[in-house]
Amino acid sequence: MNSAPGSTPIDHAGSVVDALGDGAYVLDADRNRVFVNDRLREVTEFDEEDLHAPHPERLVEEGYWSADAGERYREAVERVLAGASDDERVQLTTTLGDGSTVTTETRLTPIERDGAVVGVVGVIRDVTDRVERERELARLNERLERLAGFLSHDLRNPLSVARGYVDLARETGEVDGLDAAESALGRIEAMIDEALVMARDPDEVDTAAEPVDLAALAADCAESGDFGDEVDPAALVVEDPGPVGGDPTLLRRALGNLIGNAFDHAGASPTVRVGVDDRGVYVADDGPGIDADDLDEVAAFGVSHGGGTGIGLAIVKRVAAAHGWELDLGESDAGGFRATLVGAEPMK
């Protein structure tokens, strides 16, 4: 940015800044704000001392910027002042004088005199709405990934059951197994409905609490074929069965995933215990358990320490969030793995 005859480059930049409709300012070579336009004063409601102090140190000190934001801004300005860049853009979250926050993008361009950089012009644009749209798009993409993972993970077993009985009917001409195939298809239909729920934001899910018979729910999980023919229903022990308040369909999905996870990872002949205590609904096994360092990681989507898809526990976490509960992972009394839906309460 060059100056008119008879004025300094920074004076000329200050005149330009005054005429801009966006919030704007001029920094000298020491990163002091030497010109600030009225638009910036109006929007920020900062004191003149804050507006003209060393930048960004004063704004960080006063709490208008975080230390990380201040460091990113300082590094960008230093690159412009050093002549290493003639167009830097920095996205920052600022706490305004009235206590509200705004996300802005500041464009930094150099002020030059005789080929040397003597200052910087900063022009600020409010990008709060754009950033929120980007965040909402990211949340939508995440929910779509959950939907795809949910369907690919949970539909596999009932599809195999239905296909097996249909193939048997074709080979033998016997149709007795078609009832079981129809039941499996019914479970698939229910899972699709559940998947649509799981793809939504937890705050938007209607989870009106109903009394759910935990013993009946656990028995249905064991007898449904969801865990494969090799699972012995007698290995599933129901303790203090409830009933529990929750959405029956979603609680069935969460409990089924927890029981299935236990049978998948607790060894050759595990005992899996289901119940409800003063903390919530729990599923515990007597297998090898999980290292304490891995507990926070295993509930993330796509994480599995046993060769699975890494979807099951993440779905349980989603169901818990929809109810306002929390999924707590730890060690069972038998030294194995225990998962608790903290906040799920018994109903009389």
TrEMBL record:
Stretches assigned to the PAC domain: 86-139
Keyword tags: Kinase, Membrane, Phosphoprotein, Transferase
GO terms for biological process, alphabetical: osmosensory signaling via phosphorelay pathway
Catalytic activity of the protein: ATP + protein L-histidine = ADP + protein N-phospho-L-histidine
Pfam families to which the protein is assigned, alphabetical: HATPase_c, HisKA, PAS_4
Sequence ranges assigned to domain Histidine kinase in this UniProt record: 150-341
Keyword Transferase attached: yes
MF annotations from Gene Ontology: phosphorelay response regulator activity; phosphorelay sensor kinase activity; protein kinase activator activity
EC number(s) on file: 2.7.13.3
GO CC annotation terms, alphabetical: membrane
Enzyme class: transferase
Source species, domain of life: Archaea
Database matches in NCBIfam families: sensory_box (TIGR00229)
Protein name per its UniProtKB record: histidine kinase
